[in-house]
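Notes from hallway chat w/ T.B., transcribed later so I don't forget. T.B. wanted the structure written out for a chain they're using in a teaching module, and asked if we could keep both sequence and structure tokens in one place. Agreed to drop them here.
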Amino acid sequence: MPKQHKKEGLTRTIYRLLMILLGATLAALAIELFLVPNNIIDGGVIGVSLILSYLFENPLLNFATFVVVLNIPFLYFGYKQIGKTFMFSSLFGVICLAAVQSQLHRIEAFTNEPILATVFGGLILGVGVGLVIRHGGTLDGTEILGILMTKKLPFSVGEFVMFINIFVFGWAAFVFGPEKAMYSVMAYYIAFKAIDTVLQGLEETKACIIVSDHYDEVSDAILHRLGRGTTKLQGKGGYTDAEKDVIYVVVTRLEVMKLKGIVGEIDPNAFLTIMNTQETKGARFKSAIH
């Protein structure tokens, strides 16, 4: 008999949908009040929808219509490959994006300065899209297509999406002109970085591996001077075949220099590797910054 998994509670579902609504609203604000008035677009389905709405100039064939219609095939495949929760969350987000954007036509643009529109539009758009992704949905079916296609092609999802966006921004250059296309690339890059910040959090953590002959002393100093617990791993030298004690510890970005100082002070010959981490949870890990 297959194992029964606990379903998401009503409170959690409502919270998740409210966060998707907030993300879609921010994305709509960025599109309608910053990007569209300055002929600046985003990549993917959103970018294609903006270009098509500009070309048709028809009240019925507007951005809201295109962004919903163009996303439907991708959401269908997402339902088949990723699951119904993801599909319904994404559909809810796309509909919210279309509905909110359609109500913002009467509001005057925040700025007609292209640089300001690019920076703030890209930033707000990225935060909005990031919130939607963080809570189990998406506003752009291009990434769904990327997930499906990369199973058959020797490319990563990021590479596939970038390949698609080359054509989107190339089309933008033809429709709006090269300068607007360059602003669009800048807005896309800013949005991409903002999405990363939302998904990974502002307090970036680092995973550190330390190989030292003074394992106990280094580990004790990290615990008492830095306030971080360590994990002891067993290693073996590839050249000497000698047994080695390895320290694994996770610290915040601002604690890296202090960690380097502690290790260097106790064992200048220690081998130290510092790696970026996607996310850190559990084991009572808390930021030292309050």
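Follow-up for T.B.: The two ends are 48 Å apart (CA to CA). Might be a good example for the class.
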